[in-house]
Amino acid sequence: MTRILSILLYFAILIQNALSAVVVPKNVAVVPTVDSLFTLSTGAGSCASKTTVINTYLSECVQLMDALLTAYHSYGTVTAYRTMFEVYLSAKFDGTTVSSDSGQWTTIETRLTNVATFLSGGGITGAKTNTKPRLFCDDTFAELKTWQTVARDGNGKEMFDEDDDEVMILEVYPKIKDRQVAGLESGSVDATISPFWVPSLNGYTFSTLDPSYTTLCQKPGRMALTSRADTNAGAEAGSPSGYTYATFDRHLLLCPDSFSPSGNGPHTIASLSALVSSTNYPVEGLKQLPLSTISATLFHELFHLVDVAGTDNDNNLQSFLPILDASYSKKSPNTVNAPEPYALFATAAYLYQNPPGGDDPVLEACNLGGPSSGTFKEEQMYLSLEVSRILLISWATTSFKFLFEY
Fold first, then answer.
1. Which of 331, 317, 268 lies closest to 294, judged by CA?
2. Which DSSP string do the residues of 297-356 spell out, in sequence order?
3. Is residue 78 very low, low, confident or very high in pLDDT (cuts 50, 70, 90)?
4. Which of 117, 124, 206, 390 counts the highest number of beta carbons within 10 A?
5. pTM for the full model?
6. CA triplet 125, 128, 133: central angle to 5 degrees?
């Protein structure tokens, strides 16, 4: 009887695992348009003059997503893709089999599936509403307030308690205010969390912002912003009952600079076709910084947007070197919750799949040997990071030295 029960339990577990398994699509079914995916403002924050270029970005987002999905469905047979999972998403493999923590791998699968579903027109999985998320193209849609400002309800009216006393924003969003106070005590960036009233939503959004700035896009280096998952008033934000609150999904802001970024860093290549041109495609032995397209900014934000639970976190992983250190060196679980590793991985996979002129993709030896007095020691591992341009890593005495050419 014990043996029979054990067998039944075993099959029950198999069935449960099968039912809970994430089915990752093989590609994005359609090429979407901006108005098919987003609700566009006709007033403040309007994208009216940017729809054509955003449609181009979305087309490239589909191509980047398809490159990621190809890597996912082919990692068992293509060494380069397994290496990309290791370099960008802290993955571990035993031969061709995933040996990462099951929860961590499931998170990867879920994020790939949710972004692919959204791009395919399936909306945000687990969304709070049936309406499409808002997209704004400048920060005039949001009005900076202080925590001591009288709060407004879901109808846009000022809030008063039963004694007819004014209710302040800090009282409506106490849990977010607590994070701001804790940030002041610890010296973290949370100290600068500020509330912004959004009239088109009849609700608030929150962002970290230096006191010297008054608008969302003033923050240096900010190309885009996706609202926090706890922006909605309610239990998660600690909001008091007895009031009317607006309900809306996370919304996305593309700052003006995101359409014409300066410099030659990440997210600055004009298009995917330019990325894989003979001019920009990596050359064997050449040391360069990781580069990606302007459209990768929107691609990055989509990984924030579809995370209804708010488990996404940039975790200071917004450029290549920190990602490489966290993922490849330390196998940090934080990488799977940060959007930029997916954006760089997608770029890497796309480059690998699309060498110019039908040439073979560049495969660079990754020098990861032990201490060797500064000399290069070739290992049997290849970073098809032709891809994201790391291309040479050397070990000197007891620490990595990363060599790049600007």
1. 268
2. HHHHHHHHHT-TT-----TT--SHHHHHIIIIIT--GGGGG-HHHHHHHHHHHHHHH--G
3. very high
4. 390
5. 0.84
6. 75
